[in-house]
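Saturday, quiet lab. Running sequence design on the structure tokens for the scaffold JK sent over.
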């Protein structure tokens, strides 16, 4: 039985902890804050509740597998998973709207044809067929297996089978999502629909590789799900409780200040004075371990100064602050949620080109694309005469924008609510109060530099690959959104599975089959 020290109680870390405990290891999780879940949080006030992290769950099979492998109770016995139908409603710049059925390619094609005109659905459907081929090519190396030692082949090849496009006597193939929108979808509303998926994951559609087509494919193929009875935070609670039942020990309010190294391998963690479960040694508060799991290569490097965590041929870590963050506006509303209201509505910006400046400048978009979540969940409202609503936008992280400047957050929140009102008429008159959360809150809760949100790993030259889970230090592993396979709830869960496999089965572990 090995002693495992886990830094942080995010979703990937807890997924790894539960699997390692079932394998017979003694696992202790040291969490800097007073709760679990990482970015999967809930804000509560006056009987209202709001998911401040992810609002829906794609690819629930990742968590079904976690619960299957760590106990007798399946996931559905621990939380009330429900399909979100329609999966999303979209309001476009020209005022047209469409609601997309959940996990039904034929239904999506028909809905687009009816709302946007004949032929649009077929073009989107053909795109999904190519996206499926991309998924089949990249699913194992970019989600289900540890990062290949020869990872550069993933960056050298574009797995998306783009349609040849003739332009100025040249034949070209789409290499970015924007080019797919312009050359293959050939409708500004379909292009906005595709761009909205990229923005939701913190990606610039102008530079995101064509392989990012897997993001809408995942939702269309496997559905979008919600946890009734409290939102996605309830999924975090269920994972935490599964860990506790498997005798994982949690120490909250315990800040890790260093990683111990002995003879070239991780030997434990150093903690801020006063942490439970640690012993004093030479003026230090330490917890010895045979393996250490941490989140994010930059934070691991800061905890082990002077050490090279990755070899010269490894994926180079990207500074977290270079990625965008999110502003989340929690709205407590008077009045009933109207029957049939969509759970999620995406209101697309009428000035998409200006919005993409957030990836290249230090400003915020004047008219942002926003995601409006309106869960029909009695657990999140004081009574039937009120409603809780969450409005989210992708924004520069605090490393690129001064969210602490007087009035900055509220001014942008005003623009977000104005955009949301295109989908919910009369919204501003219904607001009792609001809570505005910026990347500064994300940084405080997760420790991510600037409050940035990690994107998922994507193949191709302009893709995003995250450092491998195994490091050059024996017994030191990266887990969570800033390590392979990147950000997003399914990816975090798979990160935990991969790290557990590497520890239990050794460096030759190649994923479950």
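Result came back. Writing it out in full:
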């Amino acid at each position: 039985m090995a002693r495992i020290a886990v830094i942080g109680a995010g979703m990937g870390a807890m997924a790894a902890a539960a699997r390692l405990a079932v394998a017979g290891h003694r696992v202790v999780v040291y969490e800097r804050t007073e709760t679990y879940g990482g970015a999967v949080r809930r804000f509560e006030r006056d009987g209202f509740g709001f998911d401040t992290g992810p609002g829906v769950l794609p690819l629930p099979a990742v968590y079904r597998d976690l619960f299957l492998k760590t106990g007798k109770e399946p996931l559905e016995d621990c939380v009330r998973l429900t399909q979100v139908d329609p999966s999303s409603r979209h309001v476009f710049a020209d005022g047209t709207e469409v609601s997309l059925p959940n996990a039904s390619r034929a239904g999506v094609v028909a809905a687009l044809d009816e709302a946007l005109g004949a032929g649009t659905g077929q073009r989107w459907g053909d795109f999904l067929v190519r996206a499926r081929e991309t998924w089949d090519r990249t699913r194992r190396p970019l989600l289900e297996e540890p990062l290949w030692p020869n990872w550069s082949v993933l960056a050298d090849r574009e797995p998306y089978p783009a349609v040849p496009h003739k332009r100025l006597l040249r034949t070209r193939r789409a290499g970015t999502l924007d080019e797919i929108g312009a050359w293959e979808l050939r409708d500004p509303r379909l292009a906005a629909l595709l761009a909205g998926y990229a923005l939701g994951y913190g990606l610039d559609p102008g530079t995101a590789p064509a392989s990012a087509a897997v993001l809408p494919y995942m939702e269309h193929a496997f559905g979008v799900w919600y946890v009734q009875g409290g939102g996605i935070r309830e999924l975090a609670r269920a994972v935490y409780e599964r860990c506790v039942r498997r005798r994982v020990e949690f120490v909250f309010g315990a800040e890790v200040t260093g990683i111990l190294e002995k003879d070239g391998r991780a030997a434990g963690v150093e903690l801020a004075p006063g942490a439970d479960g640690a012993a004093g040694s030479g003026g230090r508060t330490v917890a010895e371990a045979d393996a250490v799991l941490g989140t994010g290569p930059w934070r691991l490097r800061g905890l082990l100064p002077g050490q090279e965590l990755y070899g010269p041929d490894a994926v180079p870590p990207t500074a977290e602050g270079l990625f965008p963050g999110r502003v989340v506006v929690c709205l407590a509303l008077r009045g009933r949620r109207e029957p049939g209201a969509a759970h999620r509505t995406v209101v697309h910006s009428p000035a998409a080109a200006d919005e993409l400046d957030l990836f290249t400048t230090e400003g915020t978009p004047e008219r942002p694309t926003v995601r409006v979540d309106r869960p029909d969940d009695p657990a999140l409202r004081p009574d039937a005469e009120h409603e809780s609503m969450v409005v989210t936008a992708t924004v520069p992280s605090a490393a690129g924008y001064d969210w602490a400047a007087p009035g900055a957050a509220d001014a942008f929140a005003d623009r977000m609510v104005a955009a949301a009102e295109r989908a919910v008429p009369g919204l501003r008159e219904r607001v009792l109060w609001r809570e505005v959360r910026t990347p500064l809150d994300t940084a405080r809760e997760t420790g991510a530099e600037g409050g940035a949100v990690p994107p998922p790993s994507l193949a191709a030259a302009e893709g995003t690959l995250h450092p491998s889970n195994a490091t050059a230090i024996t017994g030191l592993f990266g887990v969570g959104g800033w390590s392979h396979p990147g950000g997003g709830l399914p990816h975090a869960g798979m990160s935990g599975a991969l790290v557990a496999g590497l520890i239990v089965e050794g460096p030759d572990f190649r994923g479950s089959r």
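Notes for JK: Residues 120-144 form the longest helix (25 residues). Residues 299 and 447 are 9 Å apart (CA to CA). Ask whether to fix the surface positions before the next round.
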